[in-house]
Amino acid sequence: MPVRSEALPTYRFGKFELDSRSAELRRNGARLKIQEQPLQVLLKLLEHPGEIVSREELRASVWPADTFVDFETGLNTVIKRLRETLGDSAETPIFIETIPRRGYRFAAPVQARPRGSSPNLVPQEMASTPHLRYKVWIISGAGVLLAGLLVAFFWANRRPQPLLVSQGIIVVADFTNSTGDPVFDDTLKEAVTIGLQQSPRVRILSEQTIRETLKLMGRLSGEPLKNDVAREVCQRTGGAALLTGSISSLGSEYVIGLRVMNCDNGEMLALQQAQAAKKEDVLKTLGTMATRLRSTLGESLPSVERFDTPIEQATTPSLDAFKAYTLGMKALDAKSTIAAIPFFNRAVELDPNFALAYSMLGSVYGDLLLEPGLAAENIRKAYALRDRVSEREKLDITAAYHVNVTGDLENAIQAGELWSQTYPQDSAAHNRLGLMFEYSGQYDKAAAETLAAIRLFADSAINYANLMEDYTALNRLDQAKIAYRQALDRKLDNVFLHDDLYSIAFLEGDSQEMNRQVAWVIGKPGEEDILLSAASDTEAFHGHLERSRVLSQRAVDSAERAGLKETAALWNLNLALREAEFGNIERARQATRTGLTIASTRNVQTIAALALARAGDLEQAEKMAAELEKQHPSNTAITRYWLPTLRAYVAIGQNDGARALQFLEAATPYDLAFPPPQFEEGGLLYPAYVRGQAYLLLHNGKEAAREFQKLVDCRGIVINSPLGALAYLGLARAFALKGDSVKARDAYQHLFGLWKDADSDIPLLLQAKMEYAKLS
Question: Which residue in 240, 504, 565, 732 has the most C-beta neighbors within 10 A?
Answer without folding.
Answer: 732
